[in-house]
Amino acid sequence: MNPYQKKRRWKFFLLIFAILIGIASVFYTDSFVKKMEREEAAQFQLWVKITERSMLLYDNDNFTSVVEDVRENTKMPVIVVNNDGTILSSSGLDSTKTWYPDNDKLVYDSLYFVRELSTMRKQHRPLVMNIMGQEKLAYYKDSFILTQLRYFPYIQMGVIFLFLLTAYTAFSSARRDEQDHVWVGLAKETAHQLGTPISSLMAWTELMKSKFDAEDDPLIAEMENDIKRLEIITDRFSKIGSKPILEDHTVYIVISDFIRYFKVRTSDKVKFSITGDEQVRALLNVPLFDWVIENLLKNAANAIENEGSISVNIIENLAKEQVFIDVTDSGKGIPRSKFDAVFQPGYTTRKRGWGLGLSLTKRIVENYHSGEIFVKESELGKGTTFRIILKSSLRYEPTTT
Protein backbone atom coordinates (compact mmCIF):
# COMPACT_ATOMS: atom_id res chain seq x y z
CA MET A 1 0.00 0.00 0.00
CA ASN A 2 1.55 3.35 -1.05
CA PRO A 3 1.51 6.45 1.20
CA TYR A 4 -1.35 8.03 -0.71
CA GLN A 5 -3.58 5.00 -0.21
CA LYS A 6 -2.69 4.92 3.51
CA LYS A 7 -3.58 8.61 3.83
CA ARG A 8 -6.91 8.06 2.09
CA ARG A 9 -7.68 5.10 4.36
CA TRP A 10 -6.95 7.15 7.49
CA LYS A 11 -9.13 9.99 6.21
CA PHE A 12 -11.93 7.50 5.57
CA PHE A 13 -11.66 6.03 9.08
CA LEU A 14 -11.63 9.49 10.69
CA LEU A 15 -14.67 10.52 8.64
CA ILE A 16 -16.56 7.39 9.69
CA PHE A 17 -15.57 8.02 13.33
CA ALA A 18 -16.81 11.62 13.15
CA ILE A 19 -20.10 10.47 11.59
CA LEU A 20 -20.59 7.89 14.35
CA ILE A 21 -19.98 10.55 17.01
CA GLY A 22 -22.52 12.80 15.32
CA ILE A 23 -25.12 10.03 15.08
CA ALA A 24 -24.58 9.08 18.74
CA SER A 25 -24.99 12.73 19.76
CA VAL A 26 -28.22 13.04 17.77
CA PHE A 27 -29.70 9.83 19.23
CA TYR A 28 -28.76 10.76 22.80
CA THR A 29 -30.21 14.25 22.47
CA ASP A 30 -33.31 12.85 20.77
CA SER A 31 -33.94 10.46 23.69
CA PHE A 32 -33.47 13.35 26.12
CA VAL A 33 -35.88 15.53 24.11
CA LYS A 34 -38.51 12.78 24.10
CA LYS A 35 -38.19 12.46 27.87
CA MET A 36 -38.74 16.23 28.23
CA GLU A 37 -41.72 16.02 25.88
CA ARG A 38 -43.33 13.41 28.16
CA GLU A 39 -42.62 15.55 31.22
CA GLU A 40 -44.12 18.64 29.58
CA ALA A 41 -47.18 16.63 28.49
CA ALA A 42 -47.62 15.43 32.11
CA GLN A 43 -47.14 18.98 33.36
CA PHE A 44 -49.77 20.24 30.92
CA GLN A 45 -52.24 17.58 32.04
CA LEU A 46 -51.62 18.66 35.64
CA TRP A 47 -52.21 22.29 34.64
CA VAL A 48 -55.53 21.34 33.00
CA LYS A 49 -56.74 19.36 36.03
CA ILE A 50 -55.79 22.09 38.50
CA THR A 51 -57.42 24.74 36.33
CA GLU A 52 -60.64 22.68 36.22
CA ARG A 53 -60.55 22.16 39.99
CA SER A 54 -59.86 25.84 40.63
CA MET A 55 -63.20 26.73 39.06
CA LEU A 56 -64.95 24.56 41.64
CA LEU A 57 -62.91 25.79 44.61
CA TYR A 58 -62.38 29.39 43.53
CA ASP A 59 -63.21 30.64 47.06
CA ASN A 60 -60.53 28.47 48.69
CA ASP A 61 -57.54 30.78 49.24
CA ASN A 62 -55.12 27.93 49.90
CA PHE A 63 -56.04 26.14 46.69
CA THR A 64 -55.94 29.41 44.74
CA SER A 65 -52.33 29.95 45.83
CA VAL A 66 -51.46 26.42 44.72
CA VAL A 67 -53.05 27.11 41.33
CA GLU A 68 -51.04 30.31 40.92
CA ASP A 69 -47.82 28.49 41.85
CA VAL A 70 -48.49 25.80 39.25
CA ARG A 71 -49.29 28.36 36.56
CA GLU A 72 -46.17 30.40 37.29
CA ASN A 73 -43.99 27.29 37.10
CA THR A 74 -45.54 26.05 33.88
CA LYS A 75 -42.93 26.65 31.20
CA MET A 76 -44.89 25.86 28.08
CA PRO A 77 -47.26 28.40 26.44
CA VAL A 78 -50.97 27.51 26.82
CA ILE A 79 -54.15 28.81 25.14
CA VAL A 80 -57.73 27.85 26.13
CA VAL A 81 -60.49 28.28 23.52
CA ASN A 82 -64.21 27.60 23.10
CA ASN A 83 -65.45 24.96 20.71
CA ASP A 84 -65.92 27.72 18.13
CA GLY A 85 -62.27 28.76 18.46
CA THR A 86 -62.82 31.88 20.59
CA ILE A 87 -59.81 32.50 22.83
CA LEU A 88 -60.73 32.51 26.52
CA SER A 89 -57.40 32.60 28.37
CA SER A 90 -53.69 32.03 27.93
CA SER A 91 -50.54 31.36 29.92
CA GLY A 92 -46.82 31.54 29.23
CA LEU A 93 -47.11 33.78 26.14
CA ASP A 94 -45.34 37.04 25.33
CA SER A 95 -46.67 39.53 27.91
CA THR A 96 -46.20 42.48 25.52
CA LYS A 97 -48.76 40.99 23.12
CA THR A 98 -51.28 39.39 25.47
CA TRP A 99 -53.81 41.36 27.50
CA TYR A 100 -51.84 44.57 27.84
CA PRO A 101 -53.55 47.83 28.97
CA ASP A 102 -54.65 50.33 26.33
CA ASN A 103 -56.97 53.26 27.17
CA ASP A 104 -58.11 51.64 30.41
CA LYS A 105 -58.87 48.40 28.59
CA LEU A 106 -57.05 45.10 28.31
CA VAL A 107 -56.38 44.26 24.67
CA TYR A 108 -54.33 41.64 22.89
CA ASP A 109 -52.59 41.15 19.55
CA SER A 110 -55.07 38.97 17.68
CA LEU A 111 -52.59 38.04 14.91
CA TYR A 112 -50.09 36.89 17.51
CA PHE A 113 -52.71 34.65 19.12
CA VAL A 114 -53.71 33.23 15.75
CA ARG A 115 -50.11 32.35 14.90
CA GLU A 116 -49.44 30.80 18.31
CA LEU A 117 -52.68 28.81 18.24
CA SER A 118 -51.88 27.54 14.72
CA THR A 119 -48.44 26.37 15.92
CA MET A 120 -49.96 24.64 18.95
CA ARG A 121 -52.50 22.80 16.82
CA LYS A 122 -49.67 21.48 14.61
CA GLN A 123 -47.57 20.28 17.54
CA HIS A 124 -50.07 18.64 19.90
CA ARG A 125 -53.65 17.47 20.15
CA PRO A 126 -55.79 19.52 22.58
CA LEU A 127 -57.08 18.36 25.96
CA VAL A 128 -60.79 18.79 26.77
CA MET A 129 -61.47 20.86 29.90
CA ASN A 130 -64.76 20.70 31.79
CA ILE A 131 -65.37 24.13 33.29
CA MET A 132 -68.70 24.80 34.98
CA GLY A 133 -70.33 22.06 32.89
CA GLN A 134 -69.00 23.43 29.60
CA GLU A 135 -66.29 21.84 27.46
CA LYS A 136 -63.27 23.94 26.51
CA LEU A 137 -60.19 23.02 24.49
CA ALA A 138 -56.70 23.59 25.88
CA TYR A 139 -53.67 23.76 23.57
CA TYR A 140 -50.00 24.00 24.48
CA LYS A 141 -46.71 24.52 22.65
CA ASP A 142 -43.27 23.08 23.36
CA SER A 143 -41.28 25.25 25.75
CA PHE A 144 -38.42 27.39 24.45
CA ILE A 145 -35.87 25.15 26.18
CA LEU A 146 -37.30 22.02 24.56
CA THR A 147 -37.26 23.68 21.14
CA GLN A 148 -33.61 24.64 21.61
CA LEU A 149 -32.70 21.11 22.67
CA ARG A 150 -34.43 19.65 19.61
CA TYR A 151 -32.19 21.65 17.25
CA PHE A 152 -29.10 21.61 19.45
CA PRO A 153 -27.42 18.43 18.02
CA TYR A 154 -27.71 19.74 14.47
CA ILE A 155 -26.29 23.11 15.46
CA GLN A 156 -23.57 21.29 17.38
CA MET A 157 -22.71 19.13 14.39
CA GLY A 158 -22.63 22.19 12.15
CA VAL A 159 -20.25 24.02 14.48
CA ILE A 160 -18.03 20.93 14.80
CA PHE A 161 -18.02 20.50 11.02
CA LEU A 162 -17.03 24.14 10.45
CA PHE A 163 -14.32 23.84 13.10
CA LEU A 164 -12.93 20.65 11.57
CA LEU A 165 -13.09 22.14 8.08
CA THR A 166 -11.23 25.26 9.22
CA ALA A 167 -8.65 23.21 11.12
CA TYR A 168 -8.17 20.82 8.20
CA THR A 169 -7.71 23.71 5.77
CA ALA A 170 -5.23 25.44 8.06
CA PHE A 171 -3.20 22.28 8.76
CA SER A 172 -3.26 21.25 5.09
CA SER A 173 -2.02 24.67 4.06
CA ALA A 174 0.75 24.56 6.68
CA ARG A 175 1.71 21.03 5.63
CA ARG A 176 1.83 22.03 1.94
CA ASP A 177 4.03 25.02 2.77
CA GLU A 178 6.34 22.78 4.77
CA GLN A 179 6.47 20.23 1.95
CA ASP A 180 7.17 23.00 -0.55
CA HIS A 181 10.11 24.25 1.53
CA VAL A 182 11.51 20.71 1.84
CA TRP A 183 11.00 20.10 -1.87
CA VAL A 184 12.68 23.35 -2.89
CA GLY A 185 15.59 22.76 -0.51
CA LEU A 186 16.09 19.20 -1.74
CA ALA A 187 15.92 20.26 -5.39
CA LYS A 188 18.44 23.08 -5.01
CA GLU A 189 20.80 20.90 -2.96
CA THR A 190 20.57 18.20 -5.64
CA ALA A 191 21.45 20.74 -8.32
CA HIS A 192 24.38 21.94 -6.25
CA GLN A 193 25.66 18.40 -5.65
CA LEU A 194 25.40 17.48 -9.36
CA GLY A 195 27.44 20.49 -10.43
CA THR A 196 30.84 19.14 -9.35
CA PRO A 197 30.70 15.68 -11.01
CA ILE A 198 29.27 17.17 -14.21
CA SER A 199 32.13 19.62 -14.46
CA SER A 200 34.54 16.75 -13.82
CA LEU A 201 32.94 14.61 -16.56
CA MET A 202 33.19 17.47 -19.04
CA ALA A 203 36.89 17.81 -18.28
CA TRP A 204 37.46 14.06 -18.63
CA THR A 205 35.78 13.92 -22.05
CA GLU A 206 37.89 16.81 -23.29
CA LEU A 207 40.99 15.02 -22.00
CA MET A 208 39.98 11.79 -23.73
CA LYS A 209 39.40 13.57 -27.04
CA SER A 210 42.79 15.28 -26.93
CA LYS A 211 44.76 12.28 -25.64
CA PHE A 212 43.29 9.66 -27.98
CA ASP A 213 42.53 11.99 -30.92
CA ALA A 214 38.84 11.08 -30.62
CA GLU A 215 37.16 14.29 -31.80
CA ASP A 216 34.82 12.37 -34.12
CA ASP A 217 34.37 9.26 -31.99
CA PRO A 218 30.60 8.44 -31.77
CA LEU A 219 30.97 7.06 -28.23
CA ILE A 220 32.47 10.34 -27.02
CA ALA A 221 29.65 12.19 -28.80
CA GLU A 222 27.02 10.15 -26.98
CA MET A 223 28.81 10.73 -23.67
CA GLU A 224 28.71 14.47 -24.35
CA ASN A 225 25.00 14.25 -25.13
CA ASP A 226 24.38 12.58 -21.78
CA ILE A 227 26.51 15.17 -19.99
CA LYS A 228 24.47 17.92 -21.64
CA ARG A 229 21.37 16.07 -20.47
CA LEU A 230 22.72 16.09 -16.92
CA GLU A 231 23.31 19.84 -17.23
CA ILE A 232 19.68 20.30 -18.29
CA ILE A 233 18.48 18.21 -15.33
CA THR A 234 20.65 20.24 -12.97
CA ASP A 235 19.21 23.43 -14.44
CA ARG A 236 15.70 22.08 -13.86
CA PHE A 237 16.34 21.38 -10.19
CA SER A 238 17.91 24.79 -9.69
CA LYS A 239 14.74 26.45 -11.04
CA ILE A 240 12.45 24.73 -8.52
CA GLY A 241 11.11 27.32 -6.08
CA SER A 242 12.07 30.26 -8.32
CA LYS A 243 9.85 32.03 -10.81
CA PRO A 244 10.91 30.67 -14.19
CA ILE A 245 11.39 32.88 -17.23
CA LEU A 246 8.82 32.00 -19.90
CA GLU A 247 9.78 32.63 -23.51
CA ASP A 248 7.90 32.41 -26.77
CA HIS A 249 8.48 29.03 -28.44
CA THR A 250 6.96 26.91 -31.18
CA VAL A 251 5.38 24.03 -29.29
CA TYR A 252 5.84 21.50 -32.11
CA ILE A 253 9.60 22.13 -32.32
CA VAL A 254 10.14 21.91 -28.53
CA ILE A 255 8.27 18.59 -28.26
CA SER A 256 9.74 17.04 -31.41
CA ASP A 257 13.29 17.89 -30.26
CA PHE A 258 12.72 16.08 -26.98
CA ILE A 259 11.05 13.07 -28.64
CA ARG A 260 14.06 12.77 -30.93
CA TYR A 261 16.31 12.55 -27.87
CA PHE A 262 13.99 10.31 -25.86
CA LYS A 263 13.06 7.64 -28.41
CA VAL A 264 16.66 6.45 -28.96
CA ARG A 265 16.78 5.68 -25.22
CA THR A 266 13.54 3.69 -25.28
CA SER A 267 12.71 0.22 -26.52
CA ASP A 268 12.43 -0.17 -30.29
CA LYS A 269 9.04 -1.82 -29.74
CA VAL A 270 7.53 1.54 -28.82
CA LYS A 271 6.74 3.77 -31.81
CA PHE A 272 6.59 7.57 -31.42
CA SER A 273 4.70 10.09 -33.52
CA ILE A 274 3.88 13.79 -33.32
CA THR A 275 1.04 15.41 -35.26
CA GLY A 276 -0.99 18.59 -35.31
CA ASP A 277 -0.39 22.29 -35.79
CA GLU A 278 3.31 22.96 -36.41
CA GLN A 279 3.04 26.75 -36.08
CA VAL A 280 1.24 27.20 -32.75
CA ARG A 281 3.28 29.07 -30.15
CA ALA A 282 3.18 29.35 -26.36
CA LEU A 283 5.16 30.89 -23.51
CA LEU A 284 7.39 28.10 -22.16
CA ASN A 285 10.37 27.46 -19.97
CA VAL A 286 11.94 24.76 -22.14
CA PRO A 287 13.98 22.89 -19.46
CA LEU A 288 10.92 22.62 -17.19
CA PHE A 289 8.50 21.86 -20.01
CA ASP A 290 10.80 19.12 -21.29
CA TRP A 291 10.52 17.63 -17.81
CA VAL A 292 6.74 17.55 -18.21
CA ILE A 293 6.97 15.77 -21.58
CA GLU A 294 9.62 13.42 -20.23
CA ASN A 295 7.44 12.33 -17.30
CA LEU A 296 4.42 11.77 -19.54
CA LEU A 297 6.44 9.80 -22.11
CA LYS A 298 8.11 7.68 -19.42
CA ASN A 299 4.75 6.83 -17.86
CA ALA A 300 3.35 6.04 -21.29
CA ALA A 301 6.31 3.78 -22.12
CA ASN A 302 6.02 1.99 -18.77
CA ALA A 303 2.32 1.40 -19.39
CA ILE A 304 3.12 -0.48 -22.63
CA GLU A 305 4.00 -4.04 -21.71
CA ASN A 306 5.09 -5.31 -25.14
CA GLU A 307 4.72 -3.46 -28.41
CA GLY A 308 2.80 -0.21 -28.61
CA SER A 309 2.70 3.40 -29.70
CA ILE A 310 2.90 6.85 -28.16
CA SER A 311 1.52 9.84 -30.04
CA VAL A 312 1.51 13.56 -29.32
CA ASN A 313 -1.11 15.73 -30.99
CA ILE A 314 -0.95 19.54 -30.86
CA ILE A 315 -4.20 21.47 -31.32
CA GLU A 316 -4.82 25.21 -31.23
CA ASN A 317 -8.09 26.52 -29.80
CA LEU A 318 -8.47 29.88 -31.53
CA ALA A 319 -11.63 30.87 -29.65
CA LYS A 320 -10.00 30.59 -26.22
CA GLU A 321 -6.43 31.33 -27.39
CA GLN A 322 -5.22 28.06 -25.90
CA VAL A 323 -2.97 25.21 -26.96
CA PHE A 324 -4.04 21.60 -26.38
CA ILE A 325 -1.33 18.94 -26.18
CA ASP A 326 -2.66 15.37 -26.09
CA VAL A 327 -0.24 12.58 -25.15
CA THR A 328 -1.79 9.20 -26.03
CA ASP A 329 -0.41 5.71 -25.39
CA SER A 330 -1.66 2.22 -26.16
CA GLY A 331 -0.85 0.92 -22.67
CA LYS A 332 -2.84 -0.77 -19.94
CA GLY A 333 -5.03 2.25 -19.11
CA ILE A 334 -6.16 3.90 -15.87
CA PRO A 335 -9.43 3.19 -13.97
CA ARG A 336 -11.77 6.19 -14.00
CA SER A 337 -11.75 6.27 -10.20
CA LYS A 338 -7.99 6.99 -10.31
CA PHE A 339 -8.06 9.92 -12.77
CA ASP A 340 -7.39 12.45 -9.98
CA ALA A 341 -5.36 10.13 -7.75
CA VAL A 342 -2.56 9.68 -10.30
CA PHE A 343 -1.46 13.28 -9.68
CA GLN A 344 -1.18 12.80 -5.91
CA PRO A 345 2.34 12.57 -4.41
CA GLY A 346 3.22 8.97 -3.59
CA TYR A 347 0.66 7.38 -5.93
CA THR A 348 2.24 4.73 -8.12
CA THR A 349 1.41 1.32 -9.60
CA ARG A 350 5.07 0.33 -9.94
CA LYS A 351 6.83 -1.62 -7.21
CA ARG A 352 9.97 0.51 -7.45
CA GLY A 353 8.32 3.85 -8.21
CA TRP A 354 8.21 6.88 -5.93
CA GLY A 355 4.98 8.29 -7.34
CA LEU A 356 6.34 11.82 -7.81
CA GLY A 357 6.50 12.15 -11.62
CA LEU A 358 2.91 13.19 -12.37
CA SER A 359 2.70 15.22 -9.15
CA LEU A 360 5.74 17.20 -10.29
CA THR A 361 4.31 17.45 -13.81
CA LYS A 362 1.08 18.95 -12.49
CA ARG A 363 3.04 21.45 -10.38
CA ILE A 364 5.16 22.58 -13.35
CA VAL A 365 2.17 22.95 -15.69
CA GLU A 366 -0.18 24.69 -13.26
CA ASN A 367 2.16 26.70 -11.01
CA TYR A 368 4.92 27.65 -13.46
CA HIS A 369 3.05 27.80 -16.80
CA SER A 370 -0.46 28.76 -15.56
CA GLY A 371 -1.92 25.83 -17.47
CA GLU A 372 -3.90 22.67 -16.81
CA ILE A 373 -3.22 18.95 -17.04
CA PHE A 374 -5.67 16.09 -16.59
CA VAL A 375 -6.58 12.62 -17.81
CA LYS A 376 -8.72 13.31 -20.85
CA GLU A 377 -9.76 9.70 -21.39
CA SER A 378 -8.60 6.19 -20.59
CA GLU A 379 -9.82 2.65 -21.13
CA LEU A 380 -8.39 -0.41 -19.41
CA GLY A 381 -6.38 -2.52 -21.83
CA LYS A 382 -6.52 0.10 -24.62
CA GLY A 383 -4.62 3.18 -23.46
CA THR A 384 -4.70 6.63 -21.94
CA THR A 385 -4.71 10.23 -23.12
CA PHE A 386 -3.34 13.06 -20.99
CA ARG A 387 -4.21 16.61 -22.04
CA ILE A 388 -2.10 19.69 -21.32
CA ILE A 389 -3.70 23.11 -21.81
CA LEU A 390 -1.41 26.14 -22.21
CA LYS A 391 -2.07 29.77 -23.05
CA SER A 392 -1.21 30.61 -26.63
CA SER A 393 1.34 33.41 -27.06
CA LEU A 394 -0.47 34.46 -30.26
CA ARG A 395 -3.38 36.89 -30.00
CA TYR A 396 -6.13 37.06 -32.59
CA GLU A 397 -8.27 40.07 -33.28
CA PRO A 398 -11.94 39.27 -33.96
CA THR A 399 -12.89 39.79 -37.58
CA THR A 400 -15.61 42.30 -38.36
CA THR A 401 -17.89 42.29 -41.36
Automatic annotation (TrEMBL):
<keyword id="KW-0547">Nucleotide-binding</keyword>
<keyword id="KW-0472">Membrane</keyword>
<keyword id="KW-1133">Transmembrane helix</keyword>
<keyword id="KW-0812">Transmembrane</keyword>
<feature type="transmembrane region" description="Helical">
    <location>
        <begin position="151"/>
        <end position="171"/>
    </location>
</feature>
<dbReference type="InterPro" id="IPR005467">
    <property type="entry name" value="His_kinase_dom"/>
</dbReference>
<dbReference type="InterPro" id="IPR036890">
    <property type="entry name" value="HATPase_C_sf"/>
</dbReference>
<dbReference type="Pfam" id="PF02518">
    <property type="entry name" value="HATPase_c"/>
</dbReference>
<keyword id="KW-0067">ATP-binding</keyword>
<feature type="domain" description="Histidine kinase">
    <location>
        <begin position="189"/>
        <end position="394"/>
    </location>
</feature>
<dbReference type="GO" id="GO:0000155">
    <property type="term" value="F:phosphorelay sensor kinase activity"/>
</dbReference>
<keyword id="KW-0808">Transferase</keyword>
<keyword id="KW-0597">Phosphoprotein</keyword>
<dbReference type="InterPro" id="IPR003594">
    <property type="entry name" value="HATPase_dom"/>
</dbReference>
<dbReference type="InterPro" id="IPR004358">
    <property type="entry name" value="Sig_transdc_His_kin-like_C"/>
</dbReference>
<protein>
    <recommendedName>
        <fullName>histidine kinase</fullName>
        <ecNumber>2.7.13.3</ecNumber>
    </recommendedName>
</protein>
<dbReference type="GO" id="GO:0005524">
    <property type="term" value="F:ATP binding"/>
</dbReference>
<keyword id="KW-0902">Two-component regulatory system</keyword>
<feature type="transmembrane region" description="Helical">
    <location>
        <begin position="12"/>
        <end position="29"/>
    </location>
</feature>
<keyword id="KW-0418">Kinase</keyword>
<dbReference type="InterPro" id="IPR003661">
    <property type="entry name" value="HisK_dim/P_dom"/>
</dbReference>
